[in-house]
Structure formats: structure tokens, C-alpha cells
Amino acid sequence: MISILIRRILSLVVTLLVVSLIIFTVMDLLPGDPAAIMLGTSASPETLAALQKQLGLDQPLPVRYLAWLSGVLQGDLGQSYTYGVPVAGLIAERLVVTLPLALIAIVISVLVAVPLGVQAARRHNGAFDFAAGLFSYISIAVPAFWVGLILIILFSTMLGWMPAGGFPGWEAGLSAGLKALILPAVALALPQAGVLTRVARAAVLEVMNEDFVRTARAKGLSDGTAIWRHAVPNALVPVVTMLGLQFTFLIAGAVLVENVFNLPGLGRLAYQALSQRDIVVMQDVVLFFSGLVILMNFVVDLAYLAIDPRLRAGVR
Amino acid sequence: MKKTLRRPVFLIGLFISLGLFSVALLSLVWTPLPPTKMNIVHKLKAPLEFGLLGTDQFGRDVASALMVGAWNSLSTSILAVALGASIGTMAGVVVAMRRSWLELIVMRGCDIIFAVPPILSAMMLGAFIGSGRFTAIVAIGVFMVPVFARLTLSAALQIWTRDYVAAAVGMGRSKAKITLVHVLPNISNQIIVQVTIQLGLAILTEAGLSFLGLGMPPPAPTWGRMLADSQTFLGQAPWLALMPGLAIALAVLGLNMLGDGLRDLLDPRDNS
């Protein structure tokens, strides 16, 4: 078990290093000199050279990469060219929007998908199953950011119940903050819920006829209790796996949805950094997101090993 | 044939997908009005008030723009999936043929690619070579490589364990020849199904990219940018936000259903 763990961690570290190297190199090859962009067109060559030196732009690429990496490892993500503040602070500031948004979306999608999937499996091939299948087909096909637009039309423009976008900040109180996040989270959750419903349904269907569920029924448990207490917990493993695998899409969705709702999150930060050519911010946000995805998959992998003893034996 | 008729998912998917392709192709030769022609007098008209689906803020015909948008979206997505499927499939069958250290490198590479969503890689690439159709195709296509590489690898590995492959090896056929004659034809069904489903995903992603301004540049109509433009007029002209989204959803729905239907239809284990 320990040797598997060490191997997984090593491969995690290597993957993260390669990703960081790729992102750094790509961003570094960008045309346009950040120093020139910061100073504008009127700067004298001497000032330009001085700033380039100050930013370390006169060093060769491997040196810059190592300097950047050692900074990243110490929590120093560099300075934003446009905001003139440390990027680490900037990311932390935006994370308090993106993280709750993603978490609420995950919670909503699981709360919708698991009961729906379980019921669909119980009424296999019935009307409810058909309706759940239709729901997942449609929710997978609709773009999350479009759902956001429709929710704005319905709940802000027409009914006036919800803000059309923006974020008051958590200083404004928990309920105001949550109110600003609920529509975007629903938009983000819908496609996830569609995918998860399918997974939950298939998983429950598979487990439903296993011996341990039959035993539970034979003991005199009602159908529902047998399924919820014995089949569903086992069916949750593929659901959790799918949540991990879908994480990339959740992040991509968040970038779009944050732009629809004008939320000052990480996705919006990346988008703004792109238009302002703020290379350091772009680099860090992309690195942060991909690191998160890789870590997520790592955690799912570990959870697998922890849950299923057969895998531990198999890997050896 | 009887079997086909008993599969509503396949039939509905086929119907919608054929509709999508026909509209896209039709837009090359005919649209109700020139899609980029402005007509300020008739701006922001509701559906049927002017044109079938109304007009946008410049008086451009929404129905015509949607038709051309179908072509733009579909052609971009097809090229992206072709890129991802060809590279991914090639990587998959080669790794299945050789295994060893190559497998480790390719599979780790897949993990890495999969960690960067196409939206972010398109942003990086867009900053590098400028945004546009090429950037979108590369960003989406590269993201699809792992999907096809993983699929082909696991499918091809199964074929390599078959008796007829062992027989071919015994007859002294080269690995490359076996891959061409035995492996690829036997996994082509799975690849076709995956191409259909990924085409739907590519359309979704392309819409997202052009929504952020990372797709085809204006004035070419794209579903994503029509949605982005509609944001200013949500209260005044909600149909501008409704129509392109419905078009995207319908296209993706059709392709997904077609893919699922094909999977059922082509599954050799289910010949009863």
C-alpha cells in the first residue's frame, strides 16, 4: 500500500512539474514585452531596460523558469503587471467567489442527480426512468452559460427576484453573497446533474441485484430501505469518480458562467488578464486550475484505493 | 433494419443531426436574407414581426445568422474532432502495438492535456497566435486527443489478445500490418461512436469560446457570439438569447442521441 502511495505521489509531482513547465514556456513565448506594455509607448529605452532587469526579463528561459517555480513553491506567484499587486493575493481574493460557486454547484448537482438516478433505477424502464433519461439528455446538451442567460431573463428581468449579476462581497453578509451565487450555481450544476443522473442510475441498477441487497430484502427490509441503505452507498463510488472526472468541465463552465453573471471570480480574472496581456496572472491562474484538476484526479484515485480493497491488491 | 426502427434514440438523433447538417450546408447557398446585412430600421424586431426569428440590434436577420452559425460551428467542430481523433487514435494503436515506456509517456501526456480545459488553452493560445477559428480548432482538437488515445488503447489492447491476432503473429505478419488489417477495423465502431459524441462536445466548447470572443472573428455569425451580443438586450429582446441557445442545445442533443443510438446498434454483444 505504501509503495503504491509513493508511486502515485511521485507521478503527481512529475505531472505538476511538466504542466508548470509547459504553461511557463507557452506564456513566455508570447509576443509583446510586458515591460513595454507596463510603461506604454513613451518610455525611454533606458527606463525600459531598467524595468526589464527589475522583472528579470533579461535572464535566459531556464533561469526564469526556476526562479518562477521556486517562487511558486514559496507561495510567491509574482506581481501582476496591471494591478501591481502580488498575484497570490489576487487569486485568494477571487477564490472566495469561485470556490463557493463550484461547491454550491456540486452540492446542487448531487442533490438532484442521486435521488433522480436512484428512482430511475428503481422504476427501471418505466415512465419515471424515461423522464429522468430525457432530463439528463437535455441538461447535458444545454450550455451552462446559456442556462445562466435564461435564468437572468426569468428571475431578474421578468420576476425581479434575483440580482442579474455582480457580487456584493461576503462583507455584505452571507445571504447577500449566497443570493448572488445561487443562479450561477444552478446554471453550472445543470449539465453536471445530467451526467451524474446517468451514472447514479447505472450504478444503482448494477448493484440492485447483488447478493447483499437481496439479503437485505430477505431480512425483511422494505424495498426502499434496502436500496437506500445498501445499494446507494455502493453506487456512490462511481458518482464520486465522475465528479472528479467532470472537474475540468466544471472549471471551464465556471469561467463562462462567471463572465455571464459578472462575478469577480478566477475565471473572470483569467479572462481579464488575457485582454490586458497580464502574463503572470494568466500563467498563475491556468497553473492553479490545472493543478486543481490534477490534484482532484489524484484524490479520486486515492479514494478509490481506500474504498475498494480489490484495487489495492490489483495494483500490486 | 427492424432493429434500427426499434431504436427511437437512434432515429431521433439521426433526424436532428441530418437536419443540422442540411441547414448548415443550405446556408452555403441560401439564407432568407444576407446574414450580415444591417437594416437599422428593422432593428430588434420580435420573431415573425420581421423575418422568421426576428432581428438583432443592427436589424440583421436572426434566422439567417443562425443558419450560417450552424455551418461555422459544425465546420469548426468537425475539424477539431478530426484533429483530436486522428492524433489520439494513432497514439492509441501505436502504444497498444509497442507498450513499454511509450505507454507511460503517452498516458501521462494525456493526463496533462486533460488537466487544461479548452477554454484556458484557447486563452493561452489566443494570446499567442491571436484568437480565431484556427485557435479554436487547435484548442478543442488537442483536448480531444486524450479521449481518443485512451479509448483506442484499451480497445486495441483487447484486440491484441484475440486468437486471430495471435495467429497473424504466428504467420509472421508485422505489428504494423496487424494493426492496419486486424486492430483498426475491429475498433472502428467504437471510434465512430466516440466521434459522434465528441462532435457534440466540440459544438458546446466552440460556443463557449466564441461567447468569450475566442472563436471566429466578427462579422462571421457564430452561435456563441450571438449569445454574447444578446446580453445587452436581455430585457428588450429576450429571443436574441433564446434562439442561439436552443440551436446549440438541439445540435448537441441530436449528436449525443445519434452517438448513443449508434453504440447500441453497433454493439456486437447485443445481437439478440
Characterization of the model:
The complex is a heterodimer of chains A (316) and B (272). Chain A is mainly α. Chain A contains 14 helices and no strands. The mean pLDDT of chain A is 84. With 272 residues, chain B is mainly α. Chain B is 73% helix and 0% strand. Chain B has helices at residues 2-5, 8-29, 62-98, 100-114, 118-129, 133-160, 163-170, 175-211, 223-230, 239-266. In chain B, α2 (8-29) crosses α3 (62-98) and α5 crosses α6. The interface between A and B is large, with 48 and 40 residues.
Notable traits:
heterodimer; A: 316 residues; mainly alpha; globular; B: 272 residues; MetI-like fold; elongated
How would you summarize the topology of this molecule?
The complex is a heterodimer of chains A (316) and B (272).
Chain A: H1 2-28, H2 34-39, H3 45-55, H4 61-73, H5 87-122, H6 127-141, H7 144-158, H8 174-208, H9 211-218, H10 223-245, H11 247-260, H12 266-275, H13 279-307, H14 309-315
Chain B: H1 2-5, H2 8-29, H3 62-98, H4 100-114, H5 118-129, H6 133-160, H7 163-170, H8 175-211, H9 223-230, H10 239-266
Helix pairs in contact in B: 2-3, 2-10, 3-4, 3-6, 3-8, 4-6, 5-6, 6-8, 7-8, 8-9, 8-10, 9-10
Structural category of chain A: mainly alpha
Find the count of extended strands of chain B (DSSP E, 2+ residues): 0
N→C terminal distance of chain B: 13 Å
Helix count of chain A, per DSSP? 14
Q: How large is the radius of gyration of chain A? A: 24 Å
Would you list the SSEs of chain A in sequence order as H and E?
HHHHHHHHHHHHHH
> What's the architecture of chain B, going by CATH?
Orthogonal Bundle
What structural class results from the helix and strand content of chain B? mainly alpha
**Can you summarize the main beta sheet of chain A?**
none
Average pLDDT, all residues of chain B: 87
